Amino acid sequence: MTISHMIRRALAPVSAAARRFGRDERASMSVEAVLVAPMLFWAFLATYAYFDVYRVKNLALKANYAVSDLLSRELNTIDMDYITGARNLYRYLTRADDTSWIRVTVVHCSLNCAVSPDATDEDRELSVDWSRGTDDQPAISDENLMIYYDDIIPMIASGERVIIVETTMDYQPVFAPELTGIGDQTFRDVVMTRPRFAPQLCFDGIGCGAS
């Protein structure tokens, strides 16, 4: 008797048992439920949590666009009460809590501005016309503007203005982070628009002469 034949004889009971198991159609619903139910439960929680976080993020961005569009159409000089009202509108649209805030900043190019579609912004300098934030948020300075915003501000021709609207809101997941991997987050959106019907958006007490 060869070695291979001896191995086949030794494994024959195992192979037969495996074939019987494969043909067996008997089952226990209670055992299957115990095995599958936790996975189904987690899949439901995760799907709902992932959908909810994207829904709220999309809602926050749309609310920012709504405020930005409102400001871009404004023809009159605005004040802090106007910006506070815009924040209240943002909170209403997003159902955000009292930790949410907005900041409005109007900027222009003061040096090496865009003069053609092929122009680059590598050596340009941007300046702040005015900046106001709600809920004790500091105004943006010229220095911070160049450090933190230069890379995301589009090309600006000389004499043009861009309105920057920043919004934030805190998000708390509907389920514990240990279940879905989604924890507390702060959604921050920055939207930029150009004034639609006026050369620039003016703030009360600040001159709006062209630069």
Summarize the structure.
The protein has helices at residues 3-23, 29-72, 80-94, 142-149, 177-180, and strands at residues 101-111, 125-133, 162-171, 185-193.
Features:
single chain, 211 residues, alpha+beta, four-stranded antiparallel beta sheet
Radius of gyration: 30 Å
The total beta strand count reads: 4
As residue ranges, the low-confidence spans are: none
Strand content: 15-25%
Strands of the largest sheet, in order across it?
2-1-3-4
Largest sheet at a glance? 4 strands, antiparallel
Structural class: alpha+beta
How many angstroms does the end-to-end distance come to? 101 Å
Keywords: Membrane, Transmembrane, Transmembrane helix
Transmembrane segments: 29-51
Protein name: Pilus assembly protein
Textual characterization of the structure:
- The chain has 211 residues and is α+β, with helices and mostly antiparallel strands.
- A four-stranded antiparallel sheet has the order 2-1-3-4.
- The chain is elongated.
- It has five helices and four strands; from the N terminus they run αααββαβαβ.
- α2 (29-72) runs antiparallel to α3.
Write the layout of secondary structure elements.
Elements: H1 3-23, H2 29-72, H3 80-94, E1 101-111, E2 125-133, H4 142-149, E3 162-171, H5 177-180, E4 185-193
Antiparallel strand pairs: 1-2, 1-3, 3-4
Helix pairs in contact: 2-3
Transmembrane segments: 29-51
Keywords: Membrane, Transmembrane, Transmembrane helix
Protein name: Pilus assembly protein
